[in-house]
Amino acid sequence: MNTTAALKKTKKQLHESGFKLTPQREATLQVLLENEKDHLSAEEIFFFVRKKNAEIGLATVYRTLEILTDLRIVDKVSFNDGVARYDLRKEGAKHFHHHLLCLECGNIEEVEEDLLGSVEEIVEQKYHFLVKDHRLTFHGVCQNCQNKQ
User: Fold this and answer.
1) Domain coordinates of the chain in residue numbers?
2) Which fold does the domain 94-149 belong to in CATH?
3) How far apart are alpha carbons 36 and 101 in whole angstroms?
4) What pTM was computed for the model?
5) 58, 46 in Cβ contact below 8 A?
6) CA nearest neighbour of 76 among 41, 29, 28
7) Contact by Cβ (8 Å): 43, 99
């Protein structure tokens, strides 16, 4: 989805939930869209937002990220470093996508396929637990690091 369409969709989601797409929220969303594969922390997002609008404070970026997380527009993720990172939820995705985390170089790759459909069915049937979402991160060594060894 292009940036304009994504902003339009997000503006609609915000409006339906009683929020407006303020210039601060729009700048934050622009940064997330422009750096979609980078899994940025709030501080990194703030750094890029400040380049767009020097008036925006860190607290505003945090509040915006919390609103976007609550509305399931973005997902808050934690990897090995313990830092909360933000990841845009993919259009039409039923679940949060999976990640491959390289323990050598720290690279994070996204896996778009939902690999846990049958696991969810087992959990729901065996444990009578209604699954709403799941997160999966594989920890290992990426192809580049394997080739270096």
Assistant:
1) 1-92, 94-149
2) Dna Ligase; domain 1 (3.30.1490)
3) 16
4) 0.71
5) yes
6) 41
7) no
> What six digits make up the tokens of 116?
């846990």
pLDDT tens digits, residue range 86-128? 988 866 555 667 778 888 888 888 787 777 788 888 999 999 9
Could you tell me which residue, 135 or 148, shows the higher pLDDT?
Answer: 148
Structure tokens at 119: 């696991």
Fold equal for 1-92 and 94-149: no
| CATH number of this structure's domain 1-92 | 1.10.10.10
Rounded distance between C-alpha atoms, residue 24 and residue 43, angstroms:
15
Beta strand 108-111 with 74-78 is unpaired
Q: What is the DSSP string of 78-139?
A: E-TT--EEEEEPPTT-SSPPEEEEETTT--EEEE-S-TTHHHHHHHHHHH---------EEE
Mean local confidence (pLDDT), 72-85: 83
**First CA to last CA across the chain, in angstroms?**
38
